[in-house]
Amino acid sequence: MSEAAIVRRGNAVEQINAMAPAKAGRGDGRNRRAIETRRKVIAAAREMIAETSAAPTVVAVARRADVSVRSVFQHFGDVESLFVTVLDSALDDLKIPPRTPPGQPLAVRIDAIVHNLAEVFEKVVPLRVAAGQFVGHPALVARAATSRQQLRDAAFDMFESEFAALDEPAREALADAIGAALSLEAWIVLRRRDGMSVERAQAVWRLTLTALLAHGPGVAAAA
């Protein structure tokens, strides 16, 4: 459902998790220490991003994790790779709200998608703001593109009956409008730039989505 939560994860965290039982089972202390160091570094970076909404320096992460700067570079190579791994780790831990059946009344579906997106976006905002320091990074660009497409797919699924009444150009235009209105960037504008409460920002989104589905591109003509 969420633009951020439904992005395609990288495999860095999965590789770490896969290593743990195999390596630990061999009784190899060095590998166990390496795995623990990576976990400590990721945890420290996640905590710092949640606190500051900024990508921390390698020196600061090393100090927080109580490891050497050299160890951080050995495991992640550079700060960009560390950030991507931290992003994937945080997204893997997100709990996605349950899907609302498309057959529910329109107002119920609108409220559900707005509430669910807001719930997830509140957890993702610090990561998205911090990611602004790495504009153009290929891994982040790929994740953003995938997330936008999956948000469109979620909108088509949730409002299937409303989209079905439209022709193809109108469906695409309406999906574009919903994707822009309910994007993570739009949530950041409401919450951080405009200083709205979660409740007020959700109210803005409900009103916007209701208007788009009632009067958006091609909707009036189809009705």
How would you concisely characterize the structure shown here?
This protein is 75% helix and 0% strand. The protein is mainly α.
Helices and strands, with pairings:
Blueprint (H helix, E strand, L loop, with lengths): L11 H14 L3 H24 L5 H8 L3 H8 L2 H15 L12 H26 L6 H21 L1 H5 L3 H14 L2 H10 L4 H18 L3 H4 L1
Helix pairs in contact: 1-2, 2-3, 2-5, 2-6, 3-4, 6-10, 6-11, 7-9, 9-11
Describe this structure in words.
The structure is a single chain. It is built from 12 helices and no strands. By secondary structure, it is an all-alpha fold. Helix 6 (106-131) packs across helix 10 (184-193). The chain has helices spanning 12-25, 29-52, 58-65, 69-76, 79-93, 106-131, 138-158, 160-164, 168-181, 184-193, 198-215, 219-222. The two termini are 27 Å apart. Residues 1-20 have low confidence and may be disordered. The protein has 2 domains: 12-93; 106-222, no CATH class.
Shape: elongated
Strand content: under 5%
Structural class: mainly alpha
Elements, N to C (H/E):
HHHHHHHHHHHH
